[in-house]
Design a protein that fits this description.
471 residues; alpha/beta; 13% strand
Length: 471
Amino acid sequence: MSAELDRLAAGTLLAGFEGISAPASLHRWLDLGLGGVCLFARNVESREQLAALAAELEERRPRLVISIDEEGGDVTRLEAREGSSYPGNWALGVVDDPGLTEHVARAIGAELRGVGVNLDLAPVADVNVDPANPIVGVRSFGTDPELVARHVAAFVTGLQSSGVAACAKHFPGHGDTIEDSHLELPTVERDDAAMAAALLPFRAAIEAGVRAVMSAHIRITGLDEAPATLSRKILTGLLRGELAFDGVVVSDALEMRAVSGTVGAEEGAVLSLAAGADALCLGHDLEPDAVHAAIVAAVSSGRLPEERLHEAVARIESLGSEQTGAPSDLDSGLGLEAARRALRVEGEVGLERPPVVVELVPEASIAAGDASHGLAESLENAEALRLAAEPLDVRAVAADHFDRQLVIVVRDAHRHDWERQTVEAFLEAASDAVVVEVGVPAWRPETSRYVATHGHGRVNLLAAAELLQPR
């Protein structure tokens, strides 16, 4: 095993790590030629700490790709504790002003550039075709492929104008699945028309000059039996060939069960490189050692051409070394103003007395994680209750707070029977309750007081609170 092969194999990996400083184990991988790191909320204590961490990493390993999932809205790493200062994609799609989307993305890029991040694993380019989709939802710009395409292009343009590379995901589209690839391997059937619609936003991203595209761990029957991340037909034939993409292909995290629970993360890494991926995302919980060893063994045995690694590492190093564009000045009010424009309100929702906010909390998606912020924090003199999917006496809850007006917060109520049943029971007990949907508003209860925020970012909730606040 040569030192050069060791270096090449390490150069294809985007590794995660614990803590707010670089551990000794990560230093070893940086010295070996690690391609990049993937940052999560666990790595972020403050902007100052993150900037110092990024500077340390880049000094130790020049041309390092420093990546993060900063989509805005429900998915934020910079503001995981307090909630995002920017609305997410669904809200921007509701407003349908590509100029606003570009402006928001430019602001996100400026914040990332300021802390040393050079690759944002955004935007989501999936068209949310199936409302039962458990992982995309409000992370998508919407259900119409043309709308999604124009906002994906605007986001890519805005983000990259700040000198941060964009990564359109999840190729070739994750919006028509009803399974979560973090937990299992989704399988979908698409005819030619459905395939063309799913690809439209990715075509728009490529035309806008997107620097990276992330693969989806989904299997598309009739196209290939292998999931997209492991499919040469999809990554090389379709993405590189038909769509003429020449940037960095990033795998989704290999520890996700769609890969690790089928072929295994190590074999998945080898197959993904062979299929045409360049950067292998190891995500949250997968250490580099076994994956690196599998890549080295595959090259040594002749299963994987060494030239494939040279090609991948050259693309990754180019991504880490080029900072095109210039940082923008931040507009502190931009996110809140965008969130206000995304609100949809029915009836008189201004509260007539102090509220009790009852938040119905479904299990969080792995992509977004648990949110610690809520609507009650933005309302004066509010009491807060957080309820999960378990039996409760709705009338007793209402009676215990008889002197307060109920505000019922739901998320993707169309996907959760218990949420809908709980809302209906509360409305029977308190007819003047206000319902606030912070997910996809595909279900509407029979009430005259209703607000859809189209996201759970902090600014989405602040915008709703402005309308609700008792006067």
